[in-house]
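tool_call: predict_structure(chain=1)
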Amino acid sequence: MNLDVKNTNVPVNGPSADPDPYKISLKTAKEWIKNWLEFDLQKAKIQPSEMKAFAVRKQDLQDLWNLAPDANWVRMYIGLELLDTGIYQPHLLMVNAIGPENVTAITRLKIKDLINYDPETLQDQYVNDFSKVCPPICDPDSELNN
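tool_result:
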């Protein structure tokens, strides 16, 4: 298994002069999501057991909410990054979303992703990549991991 897991000690504090290691471009996110949607288990070099779960820090979620105070949902996408080695690396991609509090058959399509959400500038389209995939970031004692 070849998973490149990001440093879990890197802080995420919203926009800054330094590139945020937890943000990827919208173009990259679309590519990774397409990889997942077109995934072929017969040809791929990844097994479902290599993507049991994702761990997300509380601070990452709080920072995500702080980016869009009007958001009342978070939508999570699964993406696969094709590495230079030919191996796919799983990612959990998150965006703020806004929509009705109660989802019904009629309102379910009204939850809208807030990509490119900056009320001041509406610039820098990005998607949040909080990838701490299990394995290797697993709880060995969890009943869900056995």
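agent: Residues 110 and 141 are 39 Å apart (CA to CA). Proceeding to next step.
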